[in-house]
């Protein structure tokens, strides 16, 4: 054991000496190279400034004053070269420019022409010397380059080998003597140590609690790391599955964490952003969005106040909520949540529009009724006209009743509180009943209505289904041309119960087709007033389809006619 320890110490000492020598030589070489690079860069910047100011006269004056002032030591010589845009050498401090080849393909020159500056290394074939080139583009497009040649690390080591060998011999001899003494000192207490009954005054007794403490600490750290990793994974899983945008920033507004929804909502190009940040560890949250509203809500949160703003991005509406993160009274950062409120915004807009339309539609028949009644009250109606005035009042009252009824139906469908039990309903029977009720109306207006039906059963509310088919057929009759047709088809198409109502009427312009199912929307308001109706029929069809999870499809061409299909699941 003694010999093994002795040999180990000697070997370790020898290798340590070699490694230390090599490391020291390398560090010195690297430091020398670093200083050389700094000097060369500084020199290039000085030369560039002089050339920008005085042009070629600067180099001539510099050469006259001191031809050797670019050498820092006897193993590094600087060389100045001035190159045009096309790579032609117009000045060289070593040789005649005309004897030099075109430098346009030199890496450092190409980089300088493209990026403003460039650098490269070239090692000699003997590996004894290395040359560092640094080039900078001037404002006129020319390139000034300085080259410095130094020994390579290998050459520097070889140069110091004789001295290293002498020093190694001396150190090795001293090491052997010290190793022998140290071996005896180490081995003696170990040999005298009783492993079964170690005494307090024996050497290395302190190592036992240290080892046990380290083992316990290691186990604790492993458990803590595992817990932390698990919590991080849970946090990431939760935030990545949120449809809301989520951003966490520190007290300096630098982003700590964010989810993919935030990137999608704000339209952030993460790859471009990382490239533009030049490798910075953190990016400012304002790089996600630079709008005034975004900046204001972030500043509010970082100042310790809860901020809230509305944003409109890419045609959608978002609510940005920022809450401060405070710990022990110190502002640590903020949490930003981006909520998509487009649907709420649209519903609110529709609600306002619906309220305005309802007010208008209710006011019209009430005004008419009030006007006729006032004339009759004042005795301004001749006896023979009383019947006509009464008929108008009755007609407007019926229109008002129908309108209120349709509004109630829509409200119930909107609130999904239709208290009608769903049963298996044959669409064929409902369509037959609708066609029968409308035959007289169709005949009066010169419209031919026909039914082609096969059994098609759906699970639904028969009253709502009846209203849907009735409204479709009634509209097809009202907006038809004289002596036109309305064809009603009920069938199972691709295993889906389907109702088709096709007419040969006036048709619907393409620009209006997306809006005809809106409440009170009329393509031709004057014509709609003449033929009556509340403007809610197709809206009831749409909401009834939603209630039954059905799809409404439409094909229409102006002057040809309209086909509407209700496809049930």
UniProtKB/TrEMBL annotation:
InterPro entries in the record? BphY/WalK/GraS-like, HATPase_C_sf, HATPase_dom, His_kinase_dom, HisK_dim/P_dom, HisK_dim/P_sf, PAS, PAS-like_dom_sf
Q: Where is the PAS domain?
A: 231-305
Q: Where is the Histidine kinase domain?
A: 357-569
- List the signal peptide residues: 1-24
Which reaction is catalysed here?
Answer: ATP + protein L-histidine = ADP + protein N-phospho-L-histidine
The record's top EC class is: transferase
The record ties this protein, via Pfam families, to:
HATPase_c (PF02518), HisKA (PF00512), PAS_4 (PF08448)
Record-annotated membrane-spanning stretches: 157-179
Q: Which Gene3D superfamilies match?
A: 1.10.287.130, Histidine kinase-like ATPase, C-terminal domain, PAS domain
Listed GO CC annotations: plasma membrane
Tell me the GO molecular function terms. ATP binding; phosphoprotein phosphatase activity; phosphorelay sensor kinase activity
Enzyme Commission number(s) of this protein = 2.7.13.3
**Subcellular location as annotated:** Cell membrane
Record carries keyword Transferase: yes
Q: Which UniProt keywords apply?
A: ATP-binding, Cell membrane, Kinase, Membrane, Nucleotide-binding, Phosphoprotein, Signal, Transferase, Transmembrane, Transmembrane helix, Two-component regulatory system
Query: Its GO biological process terms?
Result: cellular response to phosphate starvation
Q: Return the protein name.
A: histidine kinase
């Amino acid at each position: 054991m003694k010999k093994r320890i002795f040999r180990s110490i000697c070997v370790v000492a020898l290798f340590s000496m070699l490694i230390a020598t090599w490391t020291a030589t390398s560090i010195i070489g690297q430091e020398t190279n670093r200083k050389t690079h700094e000097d060369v860069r500084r020199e290039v910047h000085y030369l560039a400034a002089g050339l920008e100011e005085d042009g070629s006269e600067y180099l001539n004056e510099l050469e006259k004053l001191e031809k050797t002032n670019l050498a820092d030591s006897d193993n590094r010589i600087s060389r100045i070269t001035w190159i045009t845009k096309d790579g032609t050498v117009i000045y060289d401090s070593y040789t005649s420019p005309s004897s030099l080849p075109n430098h346009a393909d030199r890496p450092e020159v190409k980089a300088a022409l493209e990026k403003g500056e460039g650098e490269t290394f070239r090692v000699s074939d003997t590996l004894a010397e290395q040359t560092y080139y640094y080039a900078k583009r001037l404002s006129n497009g020319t390139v000034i380059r300085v080259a410095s040649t130094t020994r390579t690390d290998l050459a520097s080591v070889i140069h110091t080998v004789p001295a290293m060998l002498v020093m190694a011999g001396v150190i090795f001899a001293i090491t052997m003597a010290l190793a022998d003494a140290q071996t005896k000192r180490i081995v003696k207490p170990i040999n005298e140590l009783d492993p079964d009954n170690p005494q307090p005054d024996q050497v290395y007794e302190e190592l036992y609690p240290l080892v046990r403490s380290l083992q316990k600490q290691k186990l604790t750290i492993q458990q803590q790391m595992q817990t932390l990793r698990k919590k991080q994974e849970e946090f990431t899983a939760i935030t990545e599955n949120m449809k809301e945008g989520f951003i966490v920033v520190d007290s300096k507004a630098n982003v700590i964490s964010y989810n993919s929804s935030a990137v999608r909502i704000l339209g952030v190009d993460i790859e471009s952003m990382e490239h533009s940040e030049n490798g910075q560890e953190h990016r400012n949250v304002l790089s996600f969005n630079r709008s005034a509203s975004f900046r204001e809500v972030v500043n509010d949160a970082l100042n310790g106040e809860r901020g809230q703003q509305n944003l409109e991005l890419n045609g959608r509406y978002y609510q940005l909520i920022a809450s401060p993160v405070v710990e022990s009274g110190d502002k640590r950062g903020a949490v930003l949540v981006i909520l998509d409120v487009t649907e709420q915004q649209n519903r609110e807009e529709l609600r306002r529009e619906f309220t305005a339309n309802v007010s208008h539609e209710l006011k019209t028949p009430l005004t008419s009724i009030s006007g006729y009644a006032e004339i009759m009250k004042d005795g301004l109606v001749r006896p023979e006209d009383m019947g006509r005035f009464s008929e108008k009042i009755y007609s407007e009252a019926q229109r008002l009743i129908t309108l209120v009824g349709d509004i109630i139906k829509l409200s119930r469908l909107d609130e999904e509180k239709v208290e009608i039990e769903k049963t298996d309903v044959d669409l064929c029977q409902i369509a037959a009943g609708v066609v029968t009720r409308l035959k007289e109306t169709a005949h009066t207006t010169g419209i031919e209505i026909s039914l082609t039906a096969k059994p098609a059963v759906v699970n639904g509310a028969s009253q709502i289904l009846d209203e849907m088919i009735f409204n479709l057929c009634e509209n097809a009759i009202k907006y038809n041309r004289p002596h036109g047709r309305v064809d009603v088809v009920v069938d199972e198409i691709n295993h889906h119960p389907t109702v088709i109502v096709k007419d040969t009427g006036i048709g619907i312009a393409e620009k209006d087709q997306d809006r005809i199912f809106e409440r009170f929307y009329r393509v031709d308001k004057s014509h709609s007033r003449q033929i009556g109706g509340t403007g809610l029929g197709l809206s009831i069809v749409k909401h009834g389809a939603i209630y039954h999870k059905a799809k409404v499809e439409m094909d229409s061409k102006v002057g040809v006619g309209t086909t509407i299909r209700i496809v049930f699941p």
